[in-house]
Amino acid sequence: MQVFDYEDIQLIPSKCIVKSRSECDTTVEFGNRRFKLPVVPANMATIIDEKLAIWLAQNGYFYIMHRFDEAGRIPFIQKMNELGLYTSISVGVKDKEYEFVEEMAKLGLKPDYVTIDIAHGHSDQVIDMIHHLKKHLPETFVIAGNVATPEAVRELENAGADATKVGVGPGKVCITKIKTGFGTGGWQLAALARCAKAARKPIIADGGVRTHGDIAKSIRFGATMIMIGYLFAGHEESPGKTIPVGEQLFKEYFGSASEYQKGAKVNVEGKKILIPHKGKIQDTLKEMEQDLQSSISYAGGKDLEAITKVDYVIVKNSIFNGDTI
Ligand SMILES: NC(=O)C1=CN([C@@H]2O[C@H](COP(=O)(O)OP(=O)(O)OC[C@H]3O[C@@H](n4cnc5c(N)ncnc54)[C@H](OP(=O)(O)O)[C@@H]3O)[C@@H](O)[C@H]2O)C=CC1
Ligand SMILES: Nc1nc2c(ncn2[C@@H]2O[C@H](COP(=O)(O)O)[C@@H](O)[C@H]2O)c(=O)[nH]1
């Protein structure tokens, strides 16, 4: 099998057909909505909270609320409904999550998007939850993950998932690849390409994006949407705690399977890092949009579709994708 990761690939430019990058359209349709960018901040406690979710929804971006404030999820949906905004939440697969889905249905709450968020998503536990969601909330767009193989994508799609999320172990605060020896760490982009060949529905590429150029590369290899933690961590609006170190301000970014999220040292597969304070998230989103417009122009087109067809070369291979342990 030919393997490669983000830093091993360069996309090859095609003749430009626009006079200005501002002509290039970065919007994407996902579910029955159109969003400004094909990116979504990771559904993690140090990346997204209610305030940021409201801002993202109000400003035309996709968001997925994390699942770690269990009791806060129903009030969150109610608040978004009151504000006339779309709703996008996460669930796990444990028994009480089945009751939670039934409770939403009983209350007449119909989230627009529900993401099943577990580490090893190729499992009957996820398939059962897809069935449960489709039975009780038939209009909801169900995203299921995370998976690493074409077989898993097919199986979750066949179970009723409307999109699958690909990426096991490539994340910045992930230690799955080190602790278990498994995953797509070091070859996330190639894993995405394999999965995309098998997929009949949209794929979210999840984890391992380190630069804005990696967004274009994800689209080239089959992603409709790209989930990103690292590049969105450390902003003024990021929920991670602010920590002063000497003169400089940092913000916490920790894994959902870290002891900091779990409150216990059990099955730990995530770590915590400190990220230098980055300023406002809207500035990063603007820069991402401009960089992606530029990617589209290099692809020789006017929209994201153009990127899906460009040629590429493999320039080298590096298992850690620039990360240290
Ligand atoms: N994308 C990625 O690479 C990874 C992401 N994460 C994130 O960490 C969070 C916690 O994930 P997770 O532990 O799955 O969630 P949960 O703690 O909610 O576990 C979900 C269920 O799956 C079981 N489970 C977890 N891992 C495995 C496994 N390797 N094999 C078999 N069963 C398993 C758990 O049981 P039990 O705990 O008893 O085994 C539990 O029943 C999520 O937000 C997830 O996205 C974590 C690791 C990798
Ligand atoms: N193995 C682990 N993966 C995790 C954990 N918490 C989150 N994640 C995954 O990482 C991505 C974000 O990756 P990034 O490279 O953009 O920072 C996130 O969406 C999850 O899929 C964890 O504790 N362990």
From TrEMBL:
Regions that span the bilayer:
none
Identify a single GO molecular function assigned to this protein.
GMP reductase activity
Which Gene Ontology cellular-component terms appear in the entry?
cytosol; GMP reductase complex
Specify the domain of life of the species encoding this protein: Bacteria
Task: Kindly give the InterPro entries that the UniProt entry links to this protein.
Answer: Aldolase_TIM, GMP_reductase, GuaC_type_2, IMP_DH/GMP_Rdtase_CS, IMP_DH_GMPRt
One Pfam family linked to the record: IMPDH
Keyword tags: NADP, Oxidoreductase
Q: Does the keyword Cell cycle apply?
A: no
The IMP dehydrogenase/GMP reductase domain sits at 5-309
EC assignment: the record states: 1.7.1.7
Catalytic reaction list: IMP + NH4(+) + NADP(+) = GMP + NADPH + 2 H(+)
Q: Which GO terms describe its biological process?
A: purine nucleotide metabolic process
Q: Which NCBIfam families match?
A: GMP_reduct_2 (TIGR01306), PRK05458.1 (NF003966)
PANTHER family noted in UniProt:
GMP REDUCTASE (PTHR43170:SF5)
Its function, per the record, reads: Catalyzes the irreversible NADPH-dependent deamination of GMP to IMP. It functions in the conversion of nucleobase, nucleoside and nucleotide derivatives of G to A nucleotides, and in maintaining the intracellular balance of A and G nucleotides.
Report what the protein is called. GMP reductase
> From which organism does this entry originate?
Acholeplasma hippikon
Q: What is the lineage of its organism?
A: Bacteria, Bacillati, Mycoplasmatota, Mollicutes, Acholeplasmatales
Q: Which gene encodes it?
A: guaC
